[in-house]
TrEMBL record:
<dbReference type="InterPro" id="IPR014001">
    <property type="entry name" value="Helicase_ATP-bd"/>
</dbReference>
<dbReference type="GO" id="GO:0016787">
    <property type="term" value="F:hydrolase activity"/>
</dbReference>
<feature type="compositionally biased region" description="Gly residues">
    <location>
        <begin position="685"/>
        <end position="694"/>
    </location>
</feature>
<dbReference type="GO" id="GO:0003724">
    <property type="term" value="F:RNA helicase activity"/>
</dbReference>
<keyword id="KW-0067">ATP-binding</keyword>
<comment type="similarity">
    <text>Belongs to the DEAD box helicase family. DDX21/DDX50 subfamily.</text>
</comment>
<dbReference type="Pfam" id="PF00270">
    <property type="entry name" value="DEAD"/>
</dbReference>
<keyword id="KW-0347">Helicase</keyword>
<feature type="compositionally biased region" description="Basic and acidic residues">
    <location>
        <begin position="11"/>
        <end position="23"/>
    </location>
</feature>
<dbReference type="GO" id="GO:0005524">
    <property type="term" value="F:ATP binding"/>
</dbReference>
<feature type="region of interest" description="Disordered">
    <location>
        <begin position="1"/>
        <end position="121"/>
    </location>
</feature>
<feature type="region of interest" description="Disordered">
    <location>
        <begin position="645"/>
        <end position="712"/>
    </location>
</feature>
<feature type="compositionally biased region" description="Gly residues">
    <location>
        <begin position="659"/>
        <end position="677"/>
    </location>
</feature>
<dbReference type="GO" id="GO:0003723">
    <property type="term" value="F:RNA binding"/>
</dbReference>
<dbReference type="InterPro" id="IPR011545">
    <property type="entry name" value="DEAD/DEAH_box_helicase_dom"/>
</dbReference>
<keyword id="KW-0378">Hydrolase</keyword>
<keyword id="KW-0547">Nucleotide-binding</keyword>
Length: 712
């Protein structure tokens, strides 16, 4: 586990299993008892919130204990047992109102409701001042999330820290809260500069402007209540206003590396009084090419003994070790809620994969949204800025967000999405990291990203703060190997689905339409009644069928086309070929076709792939050709062709291993002749993961060609 290597002192998820939650926050049980007594006394004296001095004296004793704990940590095994819930998960369940014991609410002496007795993570169990607690309460935050609970005391007690938790678990407040307490009531209170023209006490670096803005607004809200001012510095906005703020003096600076560096070089930013520097999503800063800027900025602090450095991230690739070793103190701590656990992506998200060719996307995505977004927001990720703009243009009501859009416009777009003015955002990775937007129910990734971190971050834009969500990864069937790679590396177990079919769409659109019609005022009836009567009398359809059409029209459907399971293309049907023998290569399947089909029909075959068990070949044909295949098989001995209703597990198409170069292609490409198939590609994709398991298919022989009219 990287964190074990990079950390001198470690608090891993496994290690936390050995500590009871109280001990985790309050040191040893004796310390907890001592603290309880003090707390009681303070409650009696009515000074609990104003005085932090007692805490400071406690800290001395505690530091010794903590050091010991850290030494023990070093020896600990960080391997997490993925089958057992970790303390973090149990805590999360408790915090999020999950399966754990329901906390009994009690009243504080000051009238504030709290559940301090039952919930070890309740705010009042931490050295959080009253004013900050009230602000947190007003935002619906009553207890700390596990990553916050694990790191709060460590940061407040002056340690450097590497923090790691899955997406949406509250890493931002994990540094915001202890920093604010430290500056106003803790170790840095006395030495913090104040007054006009003061240099900043805190510098937070983030990879994107959007993220910088988001973290800045948390500092504004919570810092504002304890009298600390903040300022956000990023490129694309005018220097002038930023310079004025810096000249006046500000306590907290949040920004992106490029602009921060510019201000340092222009002499606007003085880091000599810095108490905290925070690297959030540091891995992404390096990915985005900010290496030199980040190192230059970190290197500007001359006396590193006076500054605390915190590094938070959802993922910790190897190279983060280097930054951590170079810029964090020797006795730094690591709080790792992911550790060696297999699942790196959010556990609150349903991870689905769906085969879909590029050309089928614009027709398919609206139906996916209809079926899976539950009326909430959707973010669609594309690999390039061009495809983000193009797709946004094709989807009604969607807006694009990417790096080529002017900063001011990007802010307007994000604000519109946050406020619900539009519900579909098509974005590049600019929105992948850290963005915290309410009610994002669905993430669609148009193709498998190159690195697993991108998958984890993108899918993590839903299922945040204990909520659930759905992430759907689209892939070209020929790229199924990328799906397997992401599955392997992220620890996610994908559910394989196929394109929403008329029945799925009818189900979700039908209730939407029924609601829409029920909401229409009765005042319209007299005006439309005679038209309705005329329609009914002139139509051959029943009143119910006509109403069904009206429902469809009310939600924008005038036609619903059948989609293939393999490529999600409209007006294509997915068939299964079996010969009673193992099919080792696509070319074998094509030579079978030649026995009973004319060339022009074979050329219509798309995306031929072998099933994971090797007993069949799955392929798409135009709906108009289905009958030719089904009737043709009757003239070929030992050949069976069936229409599939569910896609079976397929073999990986790992082109890098030289497999199956002769397969039929999607996206307009023609089948290249069915040669060059490679039996070495007969790899299994694990054979599982399909909803409902097994193969759903309809025997052609049982229904005869006429049954296929419904596919047209
Ligand atoms: N203790 C808490 N109780 C309830 N909600 C919280 C708590 N802490 C944070 N949140 C909320 O949880 C959401 C996710 O928090 P945050 O954005 O900090 O997650 P994150 O771990 O940084 O995610 P990512 O890795 O995606 O950046 C935010 O809306 C935040 O307000």
């Amino acid at each position: 586990m990287p964190s074990l290597v990079l950390s001198d002192h470690l608090l891993s998820s496994e290690e936390t299993k050995k500590l009871k939650p109280k001990e985790l926050q309050n040191g040893t049980p004796e310390e907890g008892e001592q603290r309880k007594k003090k707390k009681k006394k303070k409650h009696a004296d009515g000074e609990l919130d104003s005085s932090m001095e007692d805490m400071a004296s406690e800290k001395k004793a505690k530091k010794g204990k903590k050091r010991k704990a850290s030494d023990d940590d070093e020896k600990s095994d960080t391997t997490a047992d993925s089958t057992q819930p970790t303390v973090a998960e149990k805590q999360a369940a408790a915090v999020n109102g999950g399966a754990m014991k329901k906390p009994k609410l009690m009243k504080d002496d000051d009238g504030e409701t709290d559940n301090a007795a039952d919930d070890p993570n309740a705010l009042s169990n931490f050295r959080i001042s009253k004013v900050l607690r009230e602000t947190l309460n007003s935002k619906g935050i009553k207890a700390l999330f596990p990553i916050q609970a694990m790191t709060f005391d460590l940061i407040l007690d002056g340690f450097d820290l590497v923090g790691r938790a899955r997406t949406g678990q509250g890493k931002t407040l994990a540094f915001v809260l202890p920093i604010l307490e430290s500056l106003t009531n803790g170790v840095h209170k006395a030495s913090r500069k104040s007054g006009y023209g003061r240099p900043p006490s805190v510098l937070v670096l983030l990879p994107t402007r959007e993220l910088a803005n988001q973290v800045y607004s948390d500092f504004e809200v919570y810092g504002g209540t304890v009298g600390l001012s903040s300022c956000c510095l990023y490129g694309g906005s005018p220097y002038r206003t930023q310079e004025i703020s810096l000249r006046r003096g500000v306590d907290i600076i949040v920004g992106t590396p490029g602009r921060i560096k510019d201000h340092i070089e222009r002499g606007n930013l003085d880091l000599k009084a810095l108490k905290f520097r925070v690297l959030d999503e540091a891995d992404e800063m390096l990915n985005m090419g900010f290496v030199d800027d980040v190192e230059l900025i970190l290197g500007k602090v001359e006396d590193t003994s006076k500054v605390q450095t915190l590094l938070f991230s959802a993922t910790l690739p190897d190279w983060v070790k280097k930054i951590s070793t170079r810029f964090l103190k020797q006795d730094k701590k690591t709080a790792d809620l992911v550790g060696n656990e297999k699942l790196k992506a959010s556990a609150n998200v349903r991870h689905l994969v769906l085969p879909c060719t590029r050309s089928a996307r614009p027709q398919l995505i609206p139906d996916i949204i209809r079926c899976y977004s539950r009326g909430g927001r959707t973010i669609i990720f594309t690999e390039t800025k061009e495809s983000a703009s193009e797709l946004a243009g094709l989807l009604p009501g969607a807006r694009a967000l990417h790096g080529d859009i002017m900063q001011a416009q990007r802010e307007v777009i994000l604000a519109g999405f946050r406020s619900g003015r539009f519900l579909v955002l098509v974005a590049t990775n600019v929105a992948a990291r850290g963005l915290d937007i309410n009610d994002v129910q669905l993430i669609i990734q148009c193709e498998p990203p190159h690195d697993v971190e991108a998958y984890i971050h993108r899918s993590g834009r839903t299922g945040r703060a204990g909520n659930t969500g759905v992430a759907i990864l689209l892939y070209e069937p020929k790229h199924s190997f990328s799906v397997s790679r992401i599955e392997r590396e992220s620890g996610v177990k994908f559910e394989h689905i196929s394109a929403p079919q008329p029945a799925d769409i009818a189900e979700s659109a039908g209730s939407e339409a029924a609601d829409a019609i029920s909401n229409v005022s009765d005042s319209v009836i007299p005006i439309f009644r005679s038209q309705a009567e005329q329609l009914l009398s002139s139509s051959e359809l029943s009143a119910v069928d006509l109403l069904a059409k009206a429902l469809a029209k009310a939600v924008g459907f005038t036609d619903i086309k059948k989609r293939s399971l393999l490529s999600s293309m409209e007006n294509y049907v997915t068939l299964l070929l079996q010969t009673g023998k193992i099919i080792y290569s696509p070319s074998f399947a094509f030579s079978t076709f030649r026995r009973f089909l004319p060339d022009e029909k074979i050329e219509g075959v798309k995306g031929l792939s072998l099933t994971a068990d090797g007993t069949g070949a799955v392929f798409d044909v135009p709906a108009d050709d289905v009958n030719a295949f089904l009737e043709g098989q009757e003239n070929a001995q030992s050949v069976s062709i069936e229409v599939l209703e569910k896609l079976p597990p397929l073999q990986d198409t790992d082109r890098s291993k030289g497999g199956n170069s002769g397969r039929g292609r999607f996206g307009g490409g023609r089948f290249s002749g069915g040669r060059g198939g490679n039996s070495s590609s007969n790899r299994r994709n694990g054979g599982g993961g399909f909803i409902g398991g097994g193969r759903g298919r309809r025997k052609a022989s049982s229904g005869g060609p006429n049954r296929f009219n419904r596919w047209k």
